[in-house]
Structure formats: C-alpha cells, structure tokens
Design brief:
Blueprint lengths: L5 E4 L4 H5 L3 H8 E2 L10 E4 L4 E6 L6 E2 L15 E7 L4 E5 L2 E5 L4 E4 L6 E5 L8 E7 L7 E3 L5 E5 L8 E7 L10 E7 L5 E2 L4 E2 L3 E8 L7 E7 L2 E7 L3 E5 L6 E4 L4 E8 L8 E2 L7
Parallel strand pairs: 1-3
Antiparallel strand pairs: 2-21, 3-4, 4-11, 5-10, 6-9, 6-11, 7-8, 7-10, 9-12, 13-14, 14-15, 15-23, 16-22, 17-24, 18-21, 18-23, 19-20, 19-22
Family: Belongs to the KduI family.
Keywords: Isomerase, Metal-binding, Zinc
Pathway: Glycan metabolism; pectin degradation; 2-dehydro-3-deoxy-D-gluconate from pectin: step 4/5
Length: 281
C-alpha cells in the first residue's frame, strides 16, 4: 500500500503494542513506500517529531515542499535534514549551492535552508534520496559527507553471522548537528544479523531503512520490549519506526544494507542499554 504525500504516526505505549496483531503492527510502525517518481512523500512520527521521507526525481527536479501540517514558512525553518542517496548519482541544490551525491553519500542541511531541490543525473537510473528530519534549535553548516569522510567501525564476526561495517555519516564525531544522527550499516556476505546484542535507549528514538535486499529475499525486523518482542517482515526499500523503549534488530534471508537515523535529547552514540541475548523473549 502506498503512503500518502504526508501522514502521521502517533506514539504507542508498550502495553498497547503487546495487544497488536500483525496488521496493526505494520500500520503503526512500517513505512512501506518512500520512493515515488517525481514525488517526496513524508511520514511524521510523534516519537521526537521525527520525519522520514524520500525523493526520486525522474522527469525533472523534485522540490522540497512544506507540508501544511508543519505550520512553517518553509520546511527547514525549524528543522534540520539528513540525506543519503541510495540510487543513481544525483544533485541536491540548497539555496543555490549544488551538492553532487553518488550512491551511499550523505548530505546534512542545517536549519534555515529555504529552497531545496533534488535532481537525478540519469532518468534511466534515478537518484533515490532517503530523507530524515528532526526539529532543530540552532543552525549548523550544511555539509556533504562522502564514504571517505565517514567514521567507520567494523563489528561482529562470520561465526555469529553479524560481520558488518558501520559507516557513521551524519554524527557528532564527523560534523555538528542539533539532534539528528544518521549512518549506514553494510552486512558482509554470509552475515544476516544486525544490531545484536539488541539494545534500547530511553533518550532517543530510531528509524531503520532497509535496502540492497536481493530479489526474492526479506528481512525480519524485531521490535518491542526485550521480554515482549514482536517482528515485522521488511521488503527492499522499506523503513520501520522504533520507539525509544523498543529494541531494533533484524535478521535477513540474505545480507543487506540498512540506514539508521535517530533523534532525541543526546548525541552520545554509545548511550544504550544492551539486552543480553539469552534474556530476550
């Protein structure tokens, strides 16, 4: 089912989620469609007022419009924006400044940026700009972050099927932001588990966007309280909202890549409460 141009997802307590069936879990937490040719759909989560969207310019540029629900003169009047290109090469034009983004390169746009336009270099292989936005209290400089600029960490092992490379792109070890943080985790062939051991973090929420899932394969995303887990099956180029009280982990039928984006009251990447694997229920 396609998402409308703008939709809201209200917060749900752990007690509510315990009673949800499969359809209800998907309705509240799964974002099924992010890339529509020539459009820029958005989903606003009331967890930290986080916004998740996508822009896929095909027959000409796509302009970052301001949803009426934001009650703002322009989209980034009181927000910051993180962009990671997961498609063909393209460009982002922000207040007259052009940023070229190859696949898996990132761009941060600070509060106060008024005009934003997305372009593809090749309509036959369009750019797919994955977008995350959070409220911002001050202006930080806009900046492109290439893969060479990333803070890279390799974790896990082949023996535990979670050998992965974490590319910290829009995080405070790379550039200043108000509260938005984004990065990309690439699982190596033969590895399928991400974020294991699982964890929660009370001071921020998170959104996972899964891509590079081969045809015919899927990822099972785990959520919920550590002793009350639930799961949602994810297809290629879909995202899932993770409340601050929920774990966020996944296992695929193949290796894949995912983008994590988060916001909250702190920028400490290591601020998390790890859930021992044998204690998960």
């Amino acid at each position: 089912m396609s998402q409308p141009a703008f939709s809201s997802r209200f917060t749900s307590s752990p007690t509510e989620v315990k009673g949800m069936d499969t359809a209800q879990l998907r309705q509240h937490f799964l974002i099924e469609t992010l890339f529509i040719a020539g459009q820029c759909p958005w989903v606003l989560s009331f967890y930290d007022r986080y916004m998740t969207g996508g822009a896929m310019p095909v027959n000409g540029p796509v302009t970052l419009e301001t949803p009426e629900n934001l009650k703002a003169a322009y989209f980034l009047e009181r927000r910051e924006l993180g962009i990671i290109n997961v498609g063909g090469s393209g460009q982002v034009v922000a207040d007259g400044q052009t940023y070229s983004l190859a696949r898996k390169e990132a761009l941060y746009l600070g509060k106060g940026t008024q005009q934003v336009e997305f372009r593809s270099d090749d309509a036959a292989n369009p750019a797919k700009f994955y977008l995350n936005s959070a409220p911002a209290h001050m202006t930080y400089p806009s900046r492109k972050v290439s893969r060479e600029d990333a803070d890279v960490v390799v974790l896990g092992s082949q023996e535990t099927a979670n050998h992965r490379t974490i590319n910290k792109l829009l995080v405070n070890s790379v550039l200043p932001t108000c509260q938005l943080q984004m990065g990309m985790t690439e699982l190596k062939p033969g590895s399928v588990w991400n974020t294991m051991p699982a964890h929660t973090h009370d001071r921020r929420m998170e959104v996972y966007f899964y891509f590079d899932i081969p045809d015919g394969q899927s990822v099972c995303h785990f959520m919920g309280e550590p002793q009350e887990t639930r799961h949602i099956w994810i297809q290629n180029e879909q995202a899932v909202i993770s409340p601050n009280w929920s774990i966020h982990s996944g296992a695929g039928t193949s290796n894949y890549t995912f983008i994590w984006g988060m916001a909250g009251e702190n920028l400490d990447y290591g601020d998390m409460d790890v859930c021992p694997i044998p204690e998960l229920r």
